[in-house]
Amino acid sequence: MCSENCAVVRQNKDQRIMPDHSPRYGCSTMRYTALALTTVLTCAAAPGLEARVSLPGFPMSTLSVPASPGTQIVKIKEKKEKKANKGNNGKGSDNKKVKNAQKKKPEHSNDDKTRDKRNVKVKRSKDERARHSDEILHLRAPEGRDMRGLLGAGPLVLLGSDVIFADVPDDRLLRYRNCPPGLAKKDPPCVPPGLAKKGVSYDEWITYDDDRLDAIYLDRRRDYLNHDVDLYDDNLLLNSAQIESLYGLGPTPAGKRYALIDGQPVLLSDDDYTSLLHIHDLASVANLPAGLRVAPTAALTQNELRQTYRLPVLEPGYNYAVVNGELVTLQDSAFETLQLIRIARSIF
To answer: Using CA atoms, how far apart are residues 266 and 122, in angstroms rounded to an integer?
Structure first.
């Protein structure tokens, strides 16, 4: 309204508002005076506004009302400003784009931030790695929680709707590939947290067959492939050959290698292994009490890991896991992908 009707009030001191008696207008002085005063009052109520308009018979002038502190100022650009903008070849808009681009977060920013703050990698020589791995290869898992014995007793199967979850003992749950110990005590049980947040229930999860589980994993795996991660076993405590010997497995097919997730051996392609190494790169190595070592064949729930190895309770959003014999902590997103690798690539 003000931008259309604000009148000229900044006149020269010796200039007066005179009536215009020309036949063109035929209006009295009071008519224009009243309009000018009304417009001035209206503009004064709008801080930081600059407007212009002309009255019949007078040159155009400008009314400027300063903004009060804290007021958001709306500027009406003049022709001079527009010309100035044209003269800078659009640098202002380009700068804005650069700033927005700088604010744009890269993929996995949360994970990278976590890695910077929490990730503590163990730097060990080849001799130290060999000594450490030799120590844990001879450790025995808690009774009833050794995946080596379970795999020898019979093949693993998928937990289906014909099984009542509440009636299954904890040690029997280890036989079900789609309910790894890291997820068995979640709410809902067995369901990866990310899928649970999307509304996947336990009843729906246990209906997924191998093809569906594989598709879910492959979709998640893409997030962990486009990263510079060296494909060397040196990044992990146990290597493929040691896992093969530990479980009495056959030689790996060409282009495959073994890994170990929460006591469960998995057979991985290069892309699978790349995603595993990246997840391990995002993890922080948990500090065990002096003299304690994690049995690599143990399949333990979160609570069992804490109780067995006297570990502290983690803050929400973090989880314990054992990757190739090494205890680590992971954020939910990486932990979930790790569990999907265990489910989709388990040896059974």
So the answer is: 24
- Crossing angle for the helix pair 240-247 and 126-137, nearest 10 degrees? 20
Task: Give CA–CA dist 274/282, Å, rounded.
Answer: 12
User: Which residues, 6+ apart, have CB-to-CB distance to 70 below 8 Å?
Assistant: none
Residue with tokens 């007793």: 153
- Name the pLDDT band for 171 (thresholds 50, 70, 90): confident
pLDDT for 325: 95
Q: Which residues of 132-151 are buried (b: 16+ CB within 10 A; e: fewer)?
A: bbeebbeeebeeebbbbebb
Q: How far apart are CA 150 and CA 131, in angstroms?
A: 27
Is the pLDDT at 58 greater than 80, yes or no?
no
Q: Is the pLDDT of residue 89 over 90?
A: no
Of 168, 179, 189, 186, the residue nearest 343 (C-alpha): 179
Query: For the chain, give me the number of helices (H) and strands (E)?
Result: 16, 7
Nearest one of 346, 344, 315, 313 to 332, comparing CA atoms: 315
Half-sphere exposure of 76 (CA within 13 A, CB side): 16
pTM above 0.70, yes or no: no
How many residues would you count in the chain? 348
Residue 227: what pLDDT?
64
Q: Which residues contact 170 (CB under 8 A, 6 or more apart)?
A: 184, 301
**Is 272 in a helix, a strand, or coil?**
helix
SS3 188: coil
Q: Which two tokens stand for residue 261?
A: 């997730």
Q: How many CA atoms lie within 13 A of 273 on its CB side?
A: 20
Which residues contact residue 208 at a Cβ distance below 8 angstroms, ignoring those fewer than 6 apart?
178, 216
Q: Which residues pair with 159 in a beta bridge?
A: none
Q: Would you say 284 and 328 are in contact if contact means Cβ atoms under 8 Å apart?
A: yes
What does the pLDDT look like over 322-341, one tens digit per residue? Answer: 999 999 999 999 999 999 99
